[in-house]
Design goal:
The protein contains seven helices and eleven strands. By secondary structure, the protein is an alpha/beta fold. Strand 2, helix 2 and strand 3 form a beta-alpha-beta unit.
Amino acid sequence: MTLREKVLILTPVKNGAPYIAGHFERLNGLSYPHELLSVGVLESDSVDNSMALLQRMKDAYEVNFRSVTLCKRDFNFHLPAGVPRWAPSVQIQRRSILARCRNHLLFSALDDEDWVLWLDVDVIRYPRDLIERLLSFNKDILHPNCVKEPGGPSFDLNAWRDHGKLHQHDLRGGDELVPLDAVGGTVLFVRANCHRDGLIFPPFLYGKQNSKVRTNRPDFDAPDESGEIETEGFGILASDMNLQCWGVPNLEVQHANR
């Protein structure tokens, strides 16, 4: 591991106002050399004051990092009233927009960095040496175990293997690294050259011919459709590119309880 690797931290934000100030405070508290850290944020379709808060944070914190990039890209997608974000009827459309947000942010912010750390705004606790610990594994794609409570079940269930039968909480307590077929995006560490080589977040169901995809999809209103989308599609695309995704089940990061 070297502490001369440049890292870009990317965060897509929608209606993230309650978490934005804390997000930048935690970034500022990272122990990795800040002259090697760049920050990129994309705000999309918020109905709160997220964009104004992000601009305020950019003005306050950009002197502390190599750079801070703030992007705006609306897709005019809003959940129907009374429909939860996990409702099967909206999953394909919602995840497609999330994928497009991630891709837009990546293409807008990535410059000469060696690594990309995807970090959701509502991940509220992680170790100060998170980047050093992830770098120490020297793997192309790493996903820590995102939980709501320390030692609790995994929150980010988009990280799985064996057709969704095993998640990171099932693999806790064993090997430091475990192979995954799909990943989530709450905290995701990617070698930047993998992105440059074409590893993006598919905004459509991808990988129908890949044996790792799930075939029974109760989370979608299209149960007969195969393939994976967004971060899970990212994992399948990685497989098709002969890249292995790795979980770090004993390295926990904490998500807000919402």
